[in-house]
Amino acid sequence: MKYKIMPLVIIIFLLSPLSLYSYGNEVKPSLNIIPSEITLNKGQSQQFIALLGEEQGQLSRRIDWRVDGVQGNTSIDNTGVLSVGENETSPILIVTATFKEDVSRFGRAIVHVIDNKVSQQYTLTVINGTGSGRYAPNTQVLITAHVPEEKVFDHWEASKGSIENLRASQTLFTMPQEDTMVIAYFRDL
């Protein structure tokens, strides 16, 4: 009788969630790239960021960046800044971020390339953070608050344009068709 029960116990173990974990088949979160899809003009640049599951911190030194589909002098640097070449002829590029410590964790973003030479650029001024510069309308800009000591980030406010997440210290801002200012606000600990 013992010999008949033992195979049943082994089958139950092999099918249990614990066995999946113990055999190394656990599901790993992929990387999320922000923005996940964007339209850029030839000659324009875009900062991409990678988030790994619940890990929201900076992963820049732990990520390998690559851009595929290039038919010009488009490139991406090791911090995730994509520069679309003036001579880029590909209408679609794929940005890939791979986690150096586990190459099975990666994410992709789609970049639609347009040639809109008449595109006007406007000034974005970020107070208490980074992201200031000149951008075409509808460009998604990564803005990051610089939180002073003894303070915590509270929220963003913008004179024009839209902020993806008002309560996140690092978020995307969509540029309007005019100069604008974005301010990071803080509160005491």
Count of helical stretches: 2
State the end-to-end distance: 66 Å
β-strand percent reads 35-45%
Radius of gyration, CA atoms, in whole angstroms: 22 Å
Principal-axes shape call: flat
Uncertain stretches of 5 or more adjacent residues = 1-24
SS-derived structural category: mainly beta
Please give the largest β-sheet.
4 strands, mixed
Strand order of the largest sheet: 2-9-8-5
Q: Name the helix and strand elements from N-terminus to C-terminus, one letter apiece.
A: HHEEEEEEEEEEEEEEEEE
* CATH architecture heading of the largest domain: Sandwich
The beta-strand count equals: 17
Whole-number tally of structural domains: 2
Mean pLDDT: 81
| Fraction of helical residues | 10-25%
What is CATH's topology name of the largest domain? Immunoglobulin-like
- The CATH class of the largest domain is Mainly Beta
Protein name: Bacterial repeat domain-containing protein
Domain Bacterial repeat: 123-187
Pfam families: Flg_new_2 (PF18998)
Organism: Zhenhengia yiwuensis
Kindly describe this structure.
The chain has 189 residues and is mostly beta strands. The protein folds into two domains: 31-114, Immunoglobulin-like, CATH 2.60.40; 122-188. The chain has two helices and 17 strands. The protein has helices at residues 2-15, 17-22, and strands spanning 31-34, 37-41, 45-47, 49-52, 63-68, 75-76, 81-83, 92-99, 106-114, 122-127, 129-130, 133-135, 140-145, 151-158, 162-163, 170-174, 180-188. The longest helix has 14 residues, at 2-15. It is flat. Mean pLDDT is 81; it is low at 1-24.
